Amino acid sequence: MDRIGDFSIKDDGSQNIAQCIGGEDPTILTSNFFLDHVGEVFLTLQPDGLSWKLIESLCNDQEERSTCLGIQLLSKRDTSINISDVYDVEFIDWGLVHETRLTNPGFLLGHASEMYRFTVHGVERSKSQPSLLAPTVFTFGHVDKQTCQMWVNRMNSYLSLETDRPKNLLVYINPGSGKGNGCRTWKNVAPIFSQAKVKTKVIVTERAGQALDAMTSITNQELNLYDGIVAIGGDGFFNEILNGILLSRHKAPYPPSPPDDDPTIETKADVLLHDPSVTIVDPTVSNDDESPLLKRSSLNESQPINLNQDSEMSFPNERFRFGLIPSGSTDAIVICTTGVRDPMTSALQIILGKRVCLDIAQVVRWEKYHTSKNQPHVRYAASFAGYGFYGDVITESEKYRWMGPKRYDYAGTKVFLRHKSYEAKVAYMKAGPEKTNVGASAKRIKAFWGLSKESERLACRAKCDICNSTSLGPQIEKPDPKQESNWVSVKGRFLSIGAAVISCRNEKAPDGLVADAHLSDGFLHLVLIKECPRAFYLWHLTQLARKGGTPLNFDFVEHHKTTTFTFTSSGEESVWNVDGEILKAQKLSAQVFRGLISLFASGPET
Ligand SMILES: Nc1ncnc2c1ncn2[C@@H]1O[C@H](COP(=O)(O)OP(=O)(O)OP(=O)(O)O)[C@@H](O)[C@H]1O
């Protein structure tokens, strides 16, 4: 171990070693440092990032090669890091910095020296899977303490310009989600939040419905103390939190219905604003056969319902974001919004303050049973609402929750073998193409609307043209719901009816239920599977399970982009699956709100 007395300082040799290049740009710092486990580097700091060049090449052609004698020395891509990928910079005082030297016969020698050091914590992207992120740390050393401190201060001043990052988060953990890993998942990612100096208030739930109750009763004033809420669990748990937040805070008319439909719906839809005191828990409805979420949330009816008149919190909301760290059985929302099912990637996207808008569907149950006339009962869905096969699978799978994620395979097989179809009527509003397209995105947008013959798949991705296009979308030019000609009605027997808000990619359906559904295109993708022989339905399901499959390419399958639809069952029993939670509904309507919430995520990288 050496104390470095002969540390070579090659820029200005003065006390303050860092310098501005040519004195021209005061925002740029350069100096020589020792990079731990690498060697001496020439380091440059600019407002958007840090970059370095190895001074003493470990191999003669180091610039060209990233390995020497088969050993990874210095990856070419590790020669810079963007400030947007850095989440902490820290002065760590005097200590060892290791250098890797190549000796003459070609051996690598570890050589450690003591000096002052600072660390840069950031993220690196997987080469093979660009959506996958991992934490990385670089340690730089210098004999001069002031130099180290000045670089740390300068980097921290650049980091402080990253204003979209959270500082204070509310974290809810479902300990029982998926294989019961909720708490372990948090334990693995919590150090990243501490390192990034993000404060967290962590609550581990003790029962289903607890997070919904808490979010319903929390005051806006308290909620506004946080930059967002993070769920550690699956899609069902996220749905619970989403509903807890939105039910009392999202004010919107109920979905419209066709002019010839039940006048009670039409009148209510026209006149009523969504009233939280009526719709959070419907006291006229017995919860004997309801989803665990609703059943357990009603246990707390004695708890005062917050009418949230204390301070403003409305949606869409510029500031408040939702986060989701996957620990569930399906995790479709995380896969669609981050591109991978990886808790660390989600955690890193949260602390880096990534942002993506998400469409949310408002599902309103008008009648639970054929004979009942209930109060409208509202539920929000972030991924999917499905009936028939989907409702039956979720009902069946609840009986086998103890099996963990495998319950879906078991329940799915049982329901498939039953091959039940249901008589129902669906009316959906037509959503026609716009006349004008936008610049470079025109081709994608044309194909999106089905105006192009190219069968290009338009999967949603990070910085998606379609989601970011303001001139596209039904929320801008809405067809008049009062005109009957704007509605299409389909009556018949269905194996399933599904409304996908997002593509719903998951490990069982790698392209999702609807491959080209987007995170915030402003559409519900209605998929009607009409009664057909079991072998045909199996064919459809196998296409769903295949990457690049064409599950919508069958005569018995209809796919419609819409903003709103209504559903009436002719049967006795009618079960919907809303984001993986049971909702019994004989009659319901649904509409989508474009980009209603923002998520701490960046969309899938392709
Ligand atoms: N402490 C708890 N005990 C029991 N159930 C809980 C608890 N906390 C939340 N829940 C409920 O557990 C249900 C399922 O949770 P979650 O979505 O996290 O897991 P999953 O069903 O395994 O995953 P996925 O939704 O991705 O299929 C939700 O309805 C949620 O309300």
UniProtKB/TrEMBL annotation:
<dbReference type="InterPro" id="IPR016064">
    <property type="entry name" value="NAD/diacylglycerol_kinase_sf"/>
</dbReference>
<dbReference type="Pfam" id="PF19280">
    <property type="entry name" value="CERK_C"/>
</dbReference>
<dbReference type="Pfam" id="PF00781">
    <property type="entry name" value="DAGK_cat"/>
</dbReference>
<dbReference type="InterPro" id="IPR050187">
    <property type="entry name" value="Lipid_Phosphate_FormReg"/>
</dbReference>
<dbReference type="InterPro" id="IPR045363">
    <property type="entry name" value="CERK_C"/>
</dbReference>
<feature type="domain" description="DAGKc">
    <location>
        <begin position="164"/>
        <end position="367"/>
    </location>
</feature>
<dbReference type="GO" id="GO:0001729">
    <property type="term" value="F:ceramide kinase activity"/>
</dbReference>
<protein>
    <recommendedName>
        <fullName>DAGKc domain-containing protein</fullName>
    </recommendedName>
</protein>
<dbReference type="GO" id="GO:0006672">
    <property type="term" value="P:ceramide metabolic process"/>
</dbReference>
<dbReference type="GO" id="GO:0016020">
    <property type="term" value="C:membrane"/>
</dbReference>
<dbReference type="InterPro" id="IPR017438">
    <property type="entry name" value="ATP-NAD_kinase_N"/>
</dbReference>
<dbReference type="InterPro" id="IPR001206">
    <property type="entry name" value="Diacylglycerol_kinase_cat_dom"/>
</dbReference>
